[in-house]
Amino acid sequence: MPEPDSSVLARRTDIIAAMRAIVPASGAVIAEEDALRPYECDGLMAYRQLPMIVVLPENTAQIAAILKYCHQNKIRVVPRGAGTGLSGGALPMADAITISMMKFNRVLDIDWDNRACVVQPGVTNLGITRAVEHRDFYYAPDPSSQIACSIGGNIAENSGGVHCLKYGLTTNNVLGLEMVTIEGDILRIGGKALDSAGYDLMGIITGSEGLLGIVTEITVRILRKPETARAMLLGFPDNQAGGDCVAKIIANGIIPGGLEMMDAPAIRATEDFVHAGYPLDVESLLLVELDGPAIEVDHLIERVGDIAHQCGAVYSRISETEEERALFWSGRKNAFPAIGRMSPDYICMDGTIPRGRLSDVLTGMQVFSQRHGLRVANVFHAGDGNLHPLIMFDANQPGELERAEAFGADILKLCVEVGGCLSGEHGIGIEKRDLMPEMFSEDDMKHQERLKLAFDEDQLLNPGKVFPVLHGCGELKTLHARSVANKFPDIPRF
Questions:
Q1: Which residues form the FAD-binding PCMH-type domain (predicted)?
Q2: Which of 390, 410, 431 is the last residue of a domain?
Q3: Burial of 3 (0-12, 13-18, 19+ CB in 10 A)
Q4: 299-338 residues labelled b (16+ CB within 10 A) or e (exposed)
Q5: How many CB atoms lie within 10 A of CB 246?
Q6: What are phi and psi for residue 223, nearest 5 degrees?
Q7: Does any domain span residue 191?
Q8: Which of 67, 83, 100 is the last residue of a domain?
Q9: Which of 10, 264, 377, 390 is most open to solvent, judged by the fewest CB atoms within 10 Å of its CB?
């Protein structure tokens, strides 16, 4: 992480006073060490750092005033949502103000005609569905942490969930944003319309991990609940057969509402924890949900069953009631805490690969497991190739955290090697920051940095995240046309 700025630390008392003037509510500025402790990390708990101070603003005007003050006084800022992120994106800094958005927790408007919902960033993911379900609507992206994670954090990381295969990630379900820049300017981007004119700034901001500004209001798309939804459990004798079945389902033009896969260690841990009715004598398990009109769902269940049989399925079970379908999914949603019962610590990785390489990558993980002497369990969004390996270790044992980190790095390098990428939905943060060169060339990285500096020239917003080394604005100003011309000689120059 960047070294703390001693001149900022020397002004801490003045900064606290300034923040209390901007946000005068009792308890809105936290400066005492014990009270700061809950903010020292996010869901990646292996790394901890007490923030200089924490501020809990209540409205957009206060956010704008805080950021304007920080810009004028060259003070770093770390935005924070619910703290459920798994890549260290909300890791504080010793010389930075952590801005918690958890007082921004209201549903502002529900527009049934335009199928849109306007919410503040501190509203939980599940809270949006709860606000609209009485009229049979819901919000589609559903991370496993949806009961706790905030929609603002989902924007920062472009979160997905078990139903993102058919209904898209966060970026596919966001219609509009309000964002405050580091200078304190308030921007409105998009709205309730299906598309907006001009550059796709929402596409840039969604997944930007707090590096470009602080989002203060979000307009999301809400959907009608499908007429029917049924889930299938399909068990296979090995991961190869399970992976082949995933690829063949998609190749046959079937896009399930959800298509998840678990390996044997994850199946056993989850069943022991949730008792969802998972079979314990299979090596891989697919959870397939099909939704839509009842006649279509019945037809697709039959087709998926035939494909599974051709791939060597040894177990099949179909939900008959809504309660049974929810039970099937409760196992998958609780897979992470289930693994937590098996090990003092674990790191939940996040990488994406082509569907056809599932079995190759799972085989590679077993090789890495032997190499590093650590166990791994796998639960993942198989339909879109988003892996979530859970590496188990004991941080109290010397060297195990370092081995877990090396194990995770090997997995992510393999993901890139087979044509995938470093993250599907958890973001880069600090966890994968130093692996960015595995995927991007130096020129690629510099172009991304130029975009960052266009929004935040002084690098005050969430520094130390995403980029292994962030160059200064002066270093990145010149784009050498000669080198571009050499790469693309057929493009006319003027």
A1: 47-225
A2: 431
A3: exposed
A4: ebbeebbebbeebebebbebbeeeeebebbbebbbbbbeb
A5: 27
A6: -120, 155
A7: yes
A8: 100
A9: 10
Question: Number of structural domains, the chain?
Answer: 5
Place of tokens 């000689």: 489
Task: Please tell me whether residues 467 and 397 are part of one structural domain.
Answer: no
The H or E element spanning position 263 is strand 258-263
Is residue 493 in some structural domain?
no
State the amino acid at position 441 in one-letter form: S
With CA atoms as reference, report the closest residue to 78 among 106, 122, 39. Answer: 39
Examine residue 492 and state whether it is found in any structural domain, yes or no: no
CB-neighbour burial class of residue 385 (10 A; exposed 0-12, middle 13-18, buried 19+): buried
355 and 457 assigned to the same domain: no
The confidence score (pLDDT) of residue 195 equals 78
Domain that holds residue 423: 343-431
Give the percent of the chain with pLDDT over 70: 95
pLDDT at 480: 43
Say how far apart CA 272 and CA 275 lie, in whole Å: 6
pLDDT digits (tens, 9 = 90+) for 67-119: 999 999 999 999 999 999 999 999 999 999 999 999 999 999 999 999 999 99
Task: Looking at the structure, tell me whether residues 471 and 406 fall in a common domain.
Answer: no
Is 1 a domain residue?
no
Residues 320, 359 within the same domain = no
**CATH number, position 401:** 3.30.70.2740
53-55/96-100 β-pairing = parallel
CA quadruple 111, 109, 187, 84: dihedral sign: negative
Tens of pLDDT, residue by residue over 262-320, are: 999 999 999 999 999 999 999 999 999 999 999 999 999 999 999 999 999 999 999 99
Structure confidence at residue 494 (pLDDT):
41
Average pLDDT rounded to a whole number, residues 59-72: 98
Q: CATH number for the domain including 180? A: 3.30.465.10
Phi (first) and psi of residue 315, to 5 degrees: -150, 140
401-419: average pLDDT: 97
Q: What is the pLDDT of residues 14-25, one digit of tens each?
A: 999 999 999 999
- Helical pair 264-274 and 322-333, crossing angle rounded to 10 deg: 120
pLDDT of residue 490: 60
